[in-house]
């Protein structure tokens, strides 16, 4: 179980031993391939860790805002809550210094707004910018740590799904996530 006090040394070491930087999100709408940036090492290492632990399998794209973003990594399944508890309660320090922007296809970390003055990232949730214009009002507010390299048409299709309260799609959009070469 990860704790905040040991997070940076743990993820730094994990990142050195696990250099992968590409993964695939598979959905019923198709696949989305993502390249993670090496200059956001804590976010990259955390994502690779969660993928290898199987965290994302069975989570959903749980927020769909057509013309803005699609957000994933959560679900209302009990298993997701159990997985989170097993991983630990921690936030990833922001890595804005890398200078990546919220352009279309940006892969970025969600964060909790409440009492989060350091703008630290949620380790479990991410979003993909769908807007053609980008979402530059989020620059230096959320850490961009990758980009979609294949499958933006899948992102666009997911973004079109009908939504209910809280922009949650009316039909669950589960995902499986795996490392690719």
TL;DR of this structure?
By secondary structure, the chain is of the alpha+beta class. The chain is 24% helix and 27% strand. The strands form 2 sheets. An 8-stranded antiparallel β-sheet has the order 4-5-8-7-9-3-2-10. Strands 1-6 form a two-stranded parallel ribbon.
Task: Produce the secondary structure layout.
Blueprint: E1 2-3, H1 4-17, E2 22-27, E3 30-36, H2 41-52, E4 60-65, E5 69-74, H3 78-87, E6 88-89, E7 106-109, E8 126-129, E9 144-150, H4 152-159, E10 176-179
Structure, explained:
- The protein is an alpha+beta fold.
- It has a single domain, classed as Beta Barrel (Cyclophilin), CATH 2.40.100.
- It is built from four helices and ten strands.
- It has an eight-stranded antiparallel beta sheet. Strands 1-6 form a two-stranded parallel ribbon.
- The radius of gyration is 15 Å and the shape is globular.
- Its EC number is 5.2.1.8.
- Keywords: Isomerase, Rotamase.
- InterPro entries: Cyclophilin-like_dom_sf, Cyclophilin-type_PPIase_dom, Cyclophilin_A-like.
- It catalyses: [protein]-peptidylproline (omega=180) = [protein]-peptidylproline (omega=0).
